[in-house]
Amino acid sequence: MRRHPFALLGLLLLVGAAPLASAGWTASWSFALDDGYITTTPQTDGTNIFLRSSGFWVDEARPEVVALNGQGEVQWRVDNPNATQHDMSPLLHIKRTSGDCGNSGPSLLVGWSDGRLERLDPSNGTSLWSITTEVDVWGITGSIAKDGDHVVVSTRTGLLRVCVATGEVNFSASTGLGWRNGPTVTEEGFWQGDEAGRLWHVDRNGSATVRANFSGYLRHPPVVAGDHLLLHVQHAANSTLMAFNRTSNSTAFIASSGPSPALPLRVSGGALFGDSNHLTSVRCEATCWLEDRMNATTNGAMKRDRSGALWFPINTPEGGWTSVDVSSNLTFGTQSTLLTSVDTYGTAAPLFIGERMYLGNDAGVLLAHEVYYADPPPFVYDPAAAVGGAILAGVMVGLAVLVRRTSTLWGWRGLSAVALVLALMMLPDAVREWNAEAPVVQGPVTAWNETWPQAWRDGHVLIVEFEDRTLMEGGYAGPTTVEALTRQGAGDMGLSFEIQDTVLGPYLTAFDGQEGYGWEYFVNGERVPLSIADAELNEPSIVHWRLASAR
Predict the structure, then answer these.
(1) Are residues 491 and 423 in the same domain?
(2) What confidence tens digit (pLDDT) does each residue in 56-98 have?
(3) Contact yes or no for 520/78 (Cβ under 8 A)
(4) CATH number at residue 510
(5) Strands in 375-513 per DSSP E
(6) Residue 139 CB coordination number (10 Å)
């Protein structure tokens, strides 16, 4: 009978060596536009997928916005017979807003090349309001930014702040001639570049001033990194990465790079940049510096998936999509390429919804992919594992004999060392079981607030509490874990976040680059000692994130 524990130990060693199933992507369906390209990243409300067409229009063809369900079936479509060219303003979906200018339900904001800014009902495409802006050959081409209960949009010649609920213009500021130069929202106001390389600041009263002047074109929203703004300045044959210090009004050169910059992606501690030659990471603290660089070709949008890997389209005739692992300190790891049957030029980043991915390209094709888990390879008997188990079993038997017959002291020391090795091997499973059974610790009460929109009552509410501000969104019915709710809600709030994988599961380490002493979360007022992937939300819940205090 005493041999049974050792036989079990050998079995565990063999099972631990068994291969696991691997995950990949498989195409499920495709949808093709009648005319035009898909040059901007598709958007979603969790149910429908929204995409817009871009291109050079001839005959009766016109740009449009199309809504598809999860099976690729058209739910509605809206075109613009008055559009000119270059309809490249990314769509913006907003779940709801509430504030001094009024409350709004779900909205899909569209900027058109004829200068029209329009709010559509995402459920049926009905126009809820539209306003006109300045046109100089074309109108709105840049991204639209959410600012509380307002949106901020770069017009062809300036900046506009508009109430989402009513379409009322809060202010209109004149800046420089712009092209794809979306705004960046900060507490003190708004930042925007122009075609003359000037960096503009517009305060919340609508007063515009030039804060810096670069030699080139600024064709993306400036990226906030602490006290700095990061900028990818485009030139005729190359580009430069620059930093602007908002406190000292000083500029600093970071690096030269390739032509045709992509849209930078803000990440915790800095930003990721792409162009025709390189993928580059930049980090900022007191200063900003180039952290890592690899050869790559991308000229559009970039996005990170659930695991934190960076995805971007390859803008060449052969096309395809690249994914790159990015560490917490913004160094690049494993690179892989996904090729499909419809590859060509592309500038739209993938859309990720749960275990689905949607890829759009310049052929006007949207291709849906689903995660699949490949069967593990056949188990191959490994003699080394069996020998190792036998040796370990023999050592333990020998130590047991030593304890019984000779040196009790050295026998127990040996057994303690073996026990420590086994405990370390079993630590992840033991901690996971402990987490499942451990009681929650009472934290500050987070209860329903009667001032919140009633539409939130039937869904989850997410609260992110910084030292100087608190953000919240609600009404989420889809997420079933704290991780899923945090990812979706933070995206709606415009917050970047950093999630680190550990042996205990994924843990959130930063919102908008703020780490402090760490972040802790509460579900309905109780602190839950589980990883965010293991914390389930089985009924409408209030998830409250806050910075942990020093202990």
Answers:
(1) no
(2) 777 788 899 999 999 999 999 999 999 887 899 999 999 888 8
(3) no
(4) 2.170.130.30
(5) 441-442, 460-465, 470-476, 497-502, 505-511
(6) 24
Condensed to tens digits (0 to 9), the pLDDT of residues 2-17 reads: 334 433 344 334 334 4
- What residue has token string 């050998």? 10
**How many beta carbons lie within 10 A of that of residue 525, not counting itself?**
14
Q: Examine residue 360 and state whether it is found in any structural domain, yes or no.
A: no
Strands lying side by side in the sheet with 356-360: 22-32, 365-374, 356-360, 351-353
Buried b (16+ CB within 10 A) or exposed e, 369-391: beeeeeeeeeeeeeeebeeebee
426 lies in a domain? yes
461 and 484 belong to one structural domain: yes
Number of helices and strands in the chain (H, E): 4, 40
For 2, 153, 211, 284, 360, the CA distances from 234, given in Å and listed in that order, are 74, 21, 18, 21, 25
Q: Whole-angstrom Cα distance, residue 332 to residue 475? A: 36
Which parts of 45-201 fold into alpha helices (H)?
Answer: none
Indicate the number of domains in the chain. 2
Q: How many CA atoms lie within 13 A of 533 on its CB side?
A: 13
pLDDT at site 430:
52
pLDDT-wise least confident of 87-96, 114-123, 387-396: 387-396
Phi-psi region at 269: left, alpha or beta (left = phi > 0; alpha = psi -120 to 50): left
User: Which range of residues forms the domain containing residue 424?
Assistant: 4-18+383-437
Q: How many CB atoms lie within 10 A of CB 160?
A: 24
From the centroid of its chain, how far is CA 65? 23
